[in-house]
Amino acid sequence: MSFLGTLVGVVIPYVAAFIFVVGVLYRVFQWSKCAVPFNITTTSGQQYSLPWLNRTFMDRFDSPYTGWETAVRMLMEVFLFRSLWKNVRYELPGQTAVSTKWLWLFGLMFHWSLLTVLIRHFRFFLEPVPWFVTAITRLDGFIEVHLSWFQPHVVNIMVTGLLLLIALLYLLIRRIAFPKERTFSLPSDYIALFLLLGVVVTGLLMRYVIPVNVTEVKMLAQGLLAFNPPSNLDLHWLFMLHLLFVSTLLAYFPFSKLMHSAGIFFSPTRNMPNNPRAKRHINPWNYPVKGVDWDEFYENFKDDLDELENMGYVVKPEEV
Amino acid sequence: MRAPLIAVLLIFIGFFFFPYFYNTAVGQLGASLPELQKPLGEQCIEDPNWMSENHMVLLKDWRDNVIRKGIRTYISDTYGTEYNISTYTCFECHTSKAEFCDKCHAYTGVKPNCWDCHVYPELLEQYK
Question: In terms of C-beta density within 10 A (0-12 exposed, 13-18 middle, 19 or more buried), how is residue A273 classed?
Answer without folding.
Answer: buried
